[in-house]
Amino acid sequence: MSARVVPEDSRRRRRPTKQGAVLSERLIVETALRLVAQHGAEALSVRRLGAALGADPSALYRYFRNTDALLLAIADEVIGRAQEGWEASGDWRTDLRAMGLRIHRSYLAQPQAALLAAHRTTGRPHETRAVEKILGILRDGGFPDQLAVRVYHAFVDQALAFAAQDAAAAALPEAAGEADREVWGQVYGRLPAETHPHIAATFPLLVADMRDSGYPFALELMLTALETLHPDAAGTPKGTRAKGS
After folding, report:
1. CA 234, CA 161: separation in Å to the nearest integer?
2. CA distance 69 to 109
3. Residue spans per domain, the chain
4. Alpha-carbon distance 233 to 180, whole Å?
5. Which CATH architecture has domain 87-234?
6. Is there a contact between 149 and 245 (Cβ–Cβ < 8 Å)?
7. What pLDDT is recorded for position 244?
8. Which is it for the CA torsion 225, 230, 234, 235, positive or negative?
9. How far apart are CA 161 and CA 143, in angstroms?
10. What is the per-residue pLDDT for 46?
11. What are the φ/ψ torsions at residue 67 (nearest 5 degrees)?
């Protein structure tokens, strides 16, 4: 897509597409997600999207000025799906855990989209709601504002980094993924205790653990560390916030 500005009041396409659907931003994003899941980054083209939607490719400019704008909308949709059905429990550790696992699962459900968009900042509605929710969990949980912001940063970066890494593994072709998994048995399982005593001693546990994502445990490590940083750990009354909060 090339950059092109369309007036806001001209964006809606009233006539149905060839498939009988009325074109909308949501329909375009959902179709793009499906195509990206099937074909990867090359699916984000006017030609492919237009063909899949049964619409003239130029009609897409009424909703997205270029491919990057569409990519940001895709990223925002993945963030939105992570929040569907979430309700705060009132316990900051429980709520942070739930939010982190939801983010991770949402990206893994769309691994090709995660590869394209996990590192992007969208500024769109779903993302801003997620930022508000996470900061709310921390501030309502008694973290002072300066610490809440630093925790937010580390928490989100950890979730997205694991999501991107695990999505990259999930997006590998079947043969490549199987070859990677076989390395543990074919290489690590044959290392002699004389040269690699720690690998040899822990190999059964190591190979079993490496089959799964390290994110859930890494998240628990972060939550445990946060317990020590919480004002309550230093005797500060719960709910205390920094000046100006």
Report:
1. 31
2. 22
3. 8-65, 87-234
4. 43
5. Orthogonal Bundle (1.10)
6. no
7. 39
8. negative
9. 24
10. 84
11. -65, -35
Task: Give residue 137's pLDDT.
Answer: 98
**Joined tokens for residue 73:** 């909308």
Query: How far is 226 from 219, CA to CA, in rounded Å?
Result: 11
Neighbours of 230 (CB within 10 A): 19
Phi-psi category of 142—alpha, beta or left, where left has phi over 0 and alpha has psi -120 to 50? left
Residues in the chain, total? 245
Determine the Cα–Cα distance for residues 104 and 216; give it in Å rounded to an integer.
9
With beta carbons less than 8 A apart as the criterion, state whether 59 and 13 touch.
yes
Q: Which fold has domain 8-65?
A: Arc Repressor Mutant, subunit A (1.10.10)
Distance from C-alpha of 213 to C-alpha of 108, rounded to nearest angstrom:
11
**pTM for this one?**
0.81
Q: Which pLDDT value is given to residue 20? A: 52
Residues whose CB falls within 8 Å of the CB of residue 65, separated by 6 or more in sequence, listed in order: 1, 3, 4, 5, 6
Q: Is the dihedral of CA 207, 210, 216, 218 positive or negative?
A: positive
More confident residue, 159 or 18: 159
Structure tokens at 139: 């501030």
Is-contact 141 229, C-beta < 8 A?
no
Measured distance CA(190)–CA(89) in Å, rounded = 48
Q: Output the CA torsion sign for 170, 174, 180, 185.
A: positive
